[in-house]
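Reading a protein record of the kind used here takes only a little practice. The record below shows the convention in full:
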Amino acid sequence: MDFLFWSLCSIYFLGWVFCCLSYFHVEQRVSIWGERLLILGIVLQLVFIVTSYGEMNTILFNSLSGLLMFLSLLLILVLFILNFYFPDQIFELVLPPLTIFFLILSVLISDLPIISPEFLDRSTLFGRSLLIAHASLSMLGYLLFGVACFTSIFFLYQEKRIKNKTLLLKKVKIPSLGFLDSIIFKMVVAGFLFLTIGLLLGINMSVSTSEGAPRVSLRQLLPVFTWSVYSILLISRSIIGIRGRNSAIWSIIGFSVAVISFVYEISLLTQRN
């Protein structure tokens, strides 16, 4: 199993290196080989998930390591979706390293349960399906917010370079500021939609599984606060016309709130166990 895992990480790393070379105007077939290696990595990761979590006889979302494993797989799948709609952009520079990071973190972190045994015992197949849909859609929303955040950072860096009249490496293909701004907006809109649906499913689960009036905690309010930050960004862009630098900064703030929410969730799991 260790051999399969490290082979998976190595294939993702080589695929990332080949994809990065395409930004230096290396032959097109190098980029193609990079994408093929990433696809091979997806296949190996699916094999790893089936063998590892099948042996544990548990659903993928029942542990923190499983959640991180799913997050790494979702990252690389999102990469191919983004490349389909925005070919030859900066996503191949950022997402594969994040995939490798979450992969390694998933095997290093302690296997903390994130679903109470009581819920698993009394939940039906439909209830577990709602849980998987809630987790998947919410994580997809956060991932797209993360893409918007990294694009925002690149936007601010590129803007500073242009103002200072210092060019990046001349041989590197760099998107325009207008195109980066449009990517930020599209990623925020898509992430907002997925997070909204995920939150609605989570609220429905909370109401249906609670006895009496559902109790509201800080843990439940933080995702709502994240949703509120991005809703303000979208409303401001529609009404006030906020764009460019201000939009990028607001996107970074929103993702920072999402990261704080995730870290707080992990701290609660650590204290509980």
About this structure: The CA atoms of residues 22 and 29 lie 9 Å apart.
